[in-house]
Design brief:
With 177 residues, the protein is an alpha+beta fold. Helices cover 31% and strands 29% of the residues. The protein has a five-stranded antiparallel sheet, sandwiched between helices. Strands 6, 7, 8 and 9 form a four-stranded antiparallel sheet that branches. Strand 1 and strand 2 form a beta hairpin. The longest helix is centred in the middle third of the chain and has 17 residues, at 106-122.
């Protein structure tokens, strides 16, 4: 089965003319997801060092309450993933774009689409997201998607490598009525 063809048989959560958010299938997606975690830019964006082997990564259960692959419809190319924080926590949306597809507008389009899906499918009144103070690209994406600074303020953390204080700018998107 051709690479692009195998992605067509997944559950589609939501789609536009350009992108689809589709079911995450570990046997097809874990390797790309893992490889993205190996990128220092990804680790910096999440303030987290991924030390697992591929095998350990594949064996770890998914904690996200929703995880979807971003597919470009013209060629069914996986561009990255979007995920929603685990059950029992505030609904925090995250995105991870694979390196070749960054800086092309896919992130903004996919994050807007994921936000819409989360409001419709889960019935949330608000969604949260964040980015670290050094990540201007993510900050621009969040603002372009309609997220505003969280009135509860930002989070203060410790940088995963340097141990120095770092600020995560927290944002919220309210459901349009």
């Amino acid at each position: 089965m051709a690479e692009a063809q195998k992605h067509m048989n997944r559950k589609i959560y939501i789609a536009t003319q350009e992108l689809s958010l589709v079911e995450y299938c570990p046997h097809m997606d874990d390797k790309s997801h893992y490889e993205c975690w190996q990128d220092p830019t990804t680790q910096d964006g999440y303030n987290y060092k991924m030390c697992d082997s591929l095998e350990e990564f594949c064996e770890r259960p998914t904690r996200s309450r929703w995880l979807a692959v971003i597919l470009r419809k013209e060629d069914n190319q996986p561009l990255g993933i979007v995920s929603l924080s685990p059950e029992g926590s505030p609904p925090d949306l995250a995105i991870m774009l694979y390196k070749p597809y960054r800086g092309q507008g896919y992130g903004t389009n996919a994050f807007s689409l994921a936000s819409k899906y989360c409001f419709e499918a889960f019935g949330f009144d608000s969604l949260y997201a964040g980015c670290y103070e050094t990540n201007e690209i993510s900050r621009k994406m969040l603002k372009a998607c309609g997220f505003v600074p969280n009135p509860d303020g930002d989070s203060h953390e410790t940088h995963y490598i340097t141990g120095k204080p770092i600020i995560q700018h927290d944002y919220v998107l309210y459901k349009q009525t």
